[in-house]
Design brief:
80% helix; Growth Hormone, Chain: A; single chain; 0% strand; mainly alpha
Length: 405
C-alpha cells in the first residue's frame, strides 16, 4: 500500500468530500438560526430574552463539551469514528424541533445539535488539517469554514423565507431531516481514515510536544491562550446575533423575511470571505489578522443599538461577517501552526471547547443584561469585550513559532 502523501492536490477527492460533509453540518444549525425567536413567541408564548437564550446556553455547553470530547476521543478511537458519532446524534434533531410539544423539547434538541456540531465539525477540521501540508493550512480552513458557514447562511435565509410564505410549522425542518440522513450515510460509507497522514507529518515535525495541553492552550502558552480567549469572545458575539438579534428585530416589527435576510447575510459574508482570508493566514501574521478581525467586529457591533432599518442592519451584519472571516480560519490554522501533528486534534479540540463555550457565556451575559437594563446595553457590552479581546491578542500573542512551548 503506497505511503500517504500530504497536500491538497494529492488528497483532493477526500478533501472535497469532507468540505461537502461540513456544509451539511452547517446546514443543520442554519435551519433554526433565523426563526427560533419568532417560533418561541408564536408557538410557545415566550418573549423574555433570558428564556429565549436558554437554547443557546444548552447548545453552547453541549458543543463545548463535544469539542473537548473530540480532543480526547480522536487520538484514541480515530477521527472518522468521532464524525460518525456526531451524525448519529443529529438524526432526531429536526423532528424534535418541528414537533416539539413544549420549549423543553427545543432546548433538548439544541443539546443534541451542540453535540453534533462539536463532534462532526471538529472532526472534519482535524481531518482536513491531516491531509494538507504546512503551507496550505489557511487555505484548507478557509475552504472548510466557507462551506460550513455559507451553508448556515443558505439554510437560515431559506427557512426565514419559507416561514414568511408558509408559516412557522413543522414542515420547516423536513429538509433538516434529509440533511442529517445524508451526512450520516456519507460518513459511514465514503470517508476514509487520516491517521496515516498524521504519522507522516509527525515524523517530519520539529515542534515540541505539548506537555500539559489543557493548561497550555488555556493560559500558559502566549499564542495558544491568546487564540482561545479570542475564540471565546468571537462566539460570545455570535450568540448575540444568533439568539438575541432575531427576537429584537421581531419586536421592532421586522417581517420574517427581513429577519431572515439579516440573519443570513452575516454567515454568508463570513463564509464567502474566508475564500480570501483563509489563504491570507498562510502568508501574514496570525496575530495581526486576529487583532484586526476583532476590531472590525467591535466596530460593527457598536453601531447596532442605533439602527432601525433592514438595510442598516444588513450592512452592519455584513461588516460583522467580514470581521469574523478574518479570524475564523486564522484561529484554526494558527493552533495547528503552534502544535506538533500528534497533538493537533487535542489542541484544536481544547481551543474549540473555549471558543464554543462563548455561546453559553454570551447567552447568559446578553440575556441577563437585556433583562435587567436594555438591549442596547447588552450589545455595547459585547462590543467592548470584543475590542478588549483584540487588544489582548495584539499585546500578548507572538508572531513566530520559535517560541519555546
Amino acid at each position: 500500500m503506497p505511503s500517504p502523501q500530504l497536500g491538497l492536490r494529492h488528497n483532493l477527492g477526500q478533501f472535497s468530500l469532507l468540505v461537502l460533509i461540513n456544509a451539511l453540518v452547517g446546514a443543520m444549525v442554519g435551519m433554526e438560526r433565523s426563526i427560533l425567536g419568532p417560533l418561541a413567541e408564536s408557538r410557545f408564548g415566550l418573549t423574555s430574552a433570558a428564556v429565549l437564550m436558554q437554547f443557546l446556553v444548552a447548545f453552547g455547553l453541549a458543543k463545548a463539551v463535544a469539542n473537548y470530547a473530540t480532543a480526547w476521543l480522536a487520538p484514541r478511537f480515530g477521527r472518522r469514528w468521532v464524525l460518525r458519532l456526531g451524525w448519529l446524534l443529529a438524526l432526531p434533531v429536526p423532528w424534535m424541533l418541528g414537533w416539539a410539544p413544549n420549549w423543553g423539547w427545543v432546548v433538548a434538541a439544541n443539546v443534541l445539535l451542540g453535540f453534533n456540531q462539536g463532534l462532526a465539525w471538529s472532526s472534519t477540521v482535524v481531518m482536513k488539517m491531516d491531509l494538507v501540508d504546512d503551507r496550505q493550512r489557511g487555505l484548507a480552513m478557509g475552504l472548510n469554514e466557507f462551506a460550513g458557514y455559507l451553508a448556515v447562511a443558505v439554510a437560515a435565509g431559506a427557512t426565514g423565507w419559507a416561514a414568511q410564505h408558509y408559516g412557522l410549522g413543522p414542515h420547516l425542518f423536513i429538509a433538516g431531516g434529509i440533511t442529517a440522513a445524508l451526512g450520516t450515510l456519507l460518513s459511514f460509507t465514503a470517508v476514509r481514515r487520516t491517521e496515516g497522514h498524521v504519522a507522516k507529518a509527525a515524523a517530519d515535525s520539529t515542534l515540541e510536544r505539548l506537555c500539559c495541553p489543557f493548561a497550555q492552550t488555556t493560559w500558559k502558552h502566549p499564542a495558544l491562550a491568546s487564540i482561545s480567549q479570542a475564540g471565546l469572545v468571537n462566539n460570545l458575539n455570535d450568540a448575540l446575533v444568533w439568539g438575541f438579534v432575531p427576537a429584537l428585530l421581531w419586536a421592532k416589527g421586522f417581517s420574517l423575511s427581513e429577519i431572515g435576510q439579516v440573519a443570513a447575510v452575516y454567515p454568508a459574508v463570513w463564509g464567502i470571505a474566508q475564500l480570501a482570508t483563509g489563504p491570507l493566514a498562510d502568508r501574514f501574521s496570525a496575530r495581526n489578522l486576529i487583532a484586526l478581525g476583532m476590531l472590525v467586529q467591535a466596530l460593527a457591533l457598536a453601531t447596532m443599538p442605533w439602527l432601525d432599518s433592514p438595510a442598516a442592519w444588513t450592512a452592519a451584519s455584513a461588516v460583522l461577517g467580514l470581521g469574523t472571516a478574518l479570524v475564523y480560519p486564522t484561529f484554526l490554522s494558527a493552533v495547528a501552526e503552534w502544535t506538533h501533528p500528534s497533538d493537533r486534534a487535542t489542541a484544536l479540540g481544547i481551543f474549540r471547547f473555549w471558543r464554543d463555550l462563548g455561546y453559553a457565556v454570551g447567552a447568559l451575559l446578553v440575556g441577563g443584561i437585556a433583562a435587567t437594563t436594555s438591549a442596547q446595553a447588552g450589545i455595547l457590552t459585547v462590543a467592548g469585550l470584543t475590542l478588549a479581546s483584540g487588544l489582548l491578542v495584539a499585546v500578548r500573542m507572538p508572531t513566530r513559532t520559535n517560541f519555546s512551548k
